[in-house]
Amino acid sequence: MKKNVWLLAIGLIAVALAPSCKPKGAQSAITGDAASKVYVAPGTHDEFYNIVSGGFNGQMSVVGLPSGRVFKILPVFSVHPENGWGFSEETKPMLNTSHGFVPWDDLHHIAISMTNAEHDARWAFGNANNTPRIARVDLTSFKTVEILEIPNSAGNHSSPFITQNTEYVVAGTRFSVPVGENSDVSIDSYKENFKGYISFIGVDPKTGDMDLSFQIEAPPFNFDLARAGKNKSHGWFFFSTYNTEMAHTLLEVNASQKDKDFIMAVNWKKAEEYVKAGKGKKVKAKYAHNKMNEETHTATSTIMEEVLVLDPTELKDIVYFIPCPKSPHGTDTDPSGEYIVGSGKLAAVIPVFSFTKMLAAIENKDFEGDVNGMPVLKYESVLHGEVEKPGLGPLHTEFDGKGFAYTSMFVSSEIVKWNIETLEVVDRVPTYYSVGHLMIPGGPTGKPHGKYMVAYNKITKDRYLPTGPELTQSAQLYDISGDKMQLLLDFPTIGEPHYAEAFPAALIKDKQVKFYPLEKNNHPYALKGVADARVERKGNEIHVYMTSIRSNFRPDNIEGVNVGDVVYFHVTNLEQDWDVPHGFSIKGANTAEILIMPGETSTYKWTPDRPGVFPFYCTDFCSALHQEMQGYLRVSPK
Ligand code: CUK
Ligand code: CUA
């Protein structure tokens, strides 16, 4: 390795180790009235829903703001024994992929659906990083209702960012990979054989159903994050890229050599026209598309076979590169859509680009080179200006709708507030410690709700009672209604939050599903009343048509089952009231419990391996006679 590369490596290691430093003035940001600002009196509700990614736990969590209270862990990409997600026969297909059943993933980013660049909060989208997928959550039931796998992709980090009317959800690949029939190639052939893909997933405006509309083939860079243009820049998408060096080993050093990487600007309206004009090429690619049926509450998984790909080296006016210092992580667009902020995590400034100038630079062919024939715009001709001395390690930027931007600084552990027009830093507050994403309610929309800002910190150290080597990740709530940011509250989180979004609770709180009407339950094993409860044998399958209602199961004494039979308990919860689930589990079963919502049917599968009498019971305390809600199943030798 060359000497300057070693020096760079040492510099990077110093940066990487820096986060254990504490910010100066550690407690000073807290003032007297913080407690009253976060106090949500018993019996009253929080003002905002905060949907928070769970990182390596693969789920979303639902948090109230300003209290920081957790209301729900909402299972998405990881199995969740608490309510049978990925264990019940109805939900197993949701976790199917072209690789088969995948029980875990890593969920980084949240996107809340929008209309006219404002939250409509119909759906929450989340990304799976490891086995690339996008999930859609229905925010009237807080259930994951659809999961779409993304082919030609790996490390689905640049996702699931959405356009201002939820026309598209995007998914940009973090890892470029060889694709197609023969992807058994030498890793050394990275530059020739590896490719990056950006996927545009269409969302049906009525139903929310997703469809992989098209992909754009891109150079083998790493795509990190993205933001749609909005208002003024509606029709464009901006992706941050790093490793434009196209290294495939020791990226820590080899992917940090250039002073500038790129923000890739994509004219998706134009791409859409090309798709309509038949300019795409269909290529073979296997991916799963999983949907929850609304009437049966049973998921189906379909394996898709091909995808439409656009080649921007031929369709020359859809992709442009904006140079951006240095390894940009976040890229964010301000509420007007005029400004595009790049956050080079190794850069000393925050560059702010102008959409108007970008269009002019394209018009005037103000180029400084190309990537595979796709133009690189001149940095100076697109630049609105640079925020100077913002701090160390800028990652992400959110907006308050009052002309200010807030950028998280990972290395210097602070949030920096700056004026979008003048680029002047006007305030800074410490975070504890090493903030990743930050979030302002409505921050990525055209109409931020402002008021609060939350820092999602990567390192907790001494903030809570210690719990051995693994400490909770931590969030911190700040009041941003005044000129100066004020720290109000620390609260622990579920998993490791990356991005989160928040919206006013009033948008959805009166639209919540309370129970499912029994008469609309079209599950093939649904029962409408206890009179239909029964046991049926089909070969070596035993189907128990079971009801649950306070406070019994019917049937509750089951005989005639032999070792090796496959027993299906199809449990219908006959309750027609809010907040009365029943649970079910049986001794020794090699699966989780199921938790059945009122009016729903859920199936628990078990293959007994020994003779005996096996008790089962309701796992959710449902009435004063909950402990009476039980039964026995007798298993006889074959
Ligand atoms: S992120 Cu995924 S590495 Cu800054 Cu959006 Cu945390
Ligand atoms: Cu039903 Cu406890």
TrEMBL record:
<keyword id="KW-0732">Signal</keyword>
<keyword id="KW-0186">Copper</keyword>
<feature type="signal peptide">
    <location>
        <begin position="1"/>
        <end position="18"/>
    </location>
</feature>
<dbReference type="InterPro" id="IPR015943">
    <property type="entry name" value="WD40/YVTN_repeat-like_dom_sf"/>
</dbReference>
<dbReference type="InterPro" id="IPR026468">
    <property type="entry name" value="Nitrous_oxide_Rdtase_Sec-dep"/>
</dbReference>
<dbReference type="InterPro" id="IPR041114">
    <property type="entry name" value="Nos_propeller"/>
</dbReference>
<dbReference type="InterPro" id="IPR011045">
    <property type="entry name" value="N2O_reductase_N"/>
</dbReference>
<dbReference type="Pfam" id="PF18764">
    <property type="entry name" value="nos_propeller"/>
</dbReference>
<dbReference type="GO" id="GO:0030313">
    <property type="term" value="C:cell envelope"/>
</dbReference>
<dbReference type="InterPro" id="IPR051403">
    <property type="entry name" value="NosZ/Cyto_c_oxidase_sub2"/>
</dbReference>
<dbReference type="GO" id="GO:0050304">
    <property type="term" value="F:nitrous-oxide reductase activity"/>
</dbReference>
<dbReference type="GO" id="GO:0005507">
    <property type="term" value="F:copper ion binding"/>
</dbReference>
<dbReference type="InterPro" id="IPR008972">
    <property type="entry name" value="Cupredoxin"/>
</dbReference>
<dbReference type="InterPro" id="IPR034205">
    <property type="entry name" value="N2OR_C"/>
</dbReference>
<dbReference type="InterPro" id="IPR001505">
    <property type="entry name" value="Copper_CuA"/>
</dbReference>
<keyword id="KW-0560">Oxidoreductase</keyword>
<protein>
    <submittedName>
        <fullName>Sec-dependent nitrous-oxide reductase</fullName>
        <ecNumber>1.7.2.4</ecNumber>
    </submittedName>
</protein>
<keyword id="KW-0479">Metal-binding</keyword>
